[in-house]
Design goal:
The chain has 167 residues and is of the alpha+beta class. Helix content is 46%, strand content 16%. A four-stranded antiparallel β-sheet has the order 3-2-1-4. The two termini are 12 Å apart.
Length: 167
């Protein structure tokens, strides 16, 4: 299951950029990406879901054929009972990583507390990150992708090949 992500940087005055998903079978989906001053949330998903052996994260669901906007609505639903545990865990990890990017430095204890709190708020158990060097496998990769994104000129795109790690 592979998928091409095409992150299109719009004009400098736009509040949103655009992300297209092109699946192996040629079908597509798309979503707006709000500008945040750090790596966009959906591109943080790329880092997390490329590094960890997951099946039900946002990108994996889109790669299997789900509409991107549908998955976003589903995962952020107030009725968390209908959200897959792993999908909620991925969102929590992405949110925890996002807070570290905003802080401008990585603190493992703060990251773990944020990811665990985000899972608890969803009524889901936290993903077991023991044995994973989060700084290297997630934070530093997110910083590298952020630099690539920053270097992408307006009205140009950045293409990423998503292939999840086997579970």
């Amino acid at each position: 299951m592979r998928m091409l992500l095409i992150a299109e940087k719009r004009s400098s005055s736009d509040k949103y950029d655009f992300l297209r998903f092109v699946r192996n079978n040629g079908s597509t989906s798309a979503a707006q990406m709000p500008r945040q001053g750090i790596l966009p949330h959906d591109l943080i998903h790329f880092v997390v879901e490329s590094a960890l052996p997951l099946r039900h994260g946002f990108l994996s669901q889109v790669a299997r054929g789900a509409d991107a906007e549908y998955v976003v609505r589903q995962v952020h639903s107030y009725d968390q009972a209908t959200v897959d545990i792993e999908a909620a865990q991925v969102e929590a990890i992405v949110e925890g990583l996002q807070t570290q990017l905003w802080a401008g430095d990585f603190d493992n204890e703060t990251f773990m507390a944020a990811a665990e709190a985000a899972c608890a708020a969803r009524g889901k158990p936290a993903y077991d990150l023991s044995g994973i060097d989060v700084r290297t496998s997630l934070y530093e990769r997110a910083l590298a992708l952020f630099r690539q994104w920053q270097e992408t000129p307006f009205h140009k795109s950045l293409s990423l090949d998503f292939h999840p790690r086997p579970v």
